[in-house]
Amino acid sequence: MLLSTFFLFICITYKNRSTLKEVLYISRNFFNKIESLLLKLCIISILLLIALQIVLNNETLSVFLNKNIEGVPLESINKKNKGIIILKILNSKNYGNVEVLINGETVKKFGNQKEIDIKVYNNDLIEINGTMYKENIEVKVVGVSKNIKTPKLNSSVTTSKSIEILGKVLLK
Fold first, then answer.
1. Which of 38, 73, 95, 156 could form a disulfide with 140 if both were Cys (CB 3.0 to 4.6 A apart)?
2. Which regions in the chain score pLDDT beneath 70?
């Protein structure tokens, strides 16, 4: 618009009608080309967005994507800082199949032990899976390394045929 106004000003100043018509034709042609280019770019972008959404929602097509990093905070990929948490089953009975999950994946089972230690990183989500037992199972944090802010020492969780969240790991 600014360019065509500039040309229009020049043509009016020189009072040449043929030049005015040429300038208007050139400027209209130029802006029509830009408009059609922008329209094509918008249509291609929308079609690409729709295609990407179809791929992400289709399980058979999404095998080509790297699911290991999807949805994970970037700082949790950096595995330099780690901590250790010691968990203990407080019940007197042995519950060997109780699982400790970190970010939804099983990392350890209690087995024949009452206490286990797990390595954790910043922003890890710790859960206790007691779905295989009908009884209430209490799991307590009995030890944490110095660099762990949460979960706090002596915090506990009770499972009752469920998966319960013990807490999210925050490192100092």
1. 156
2. 1-24, 59-80
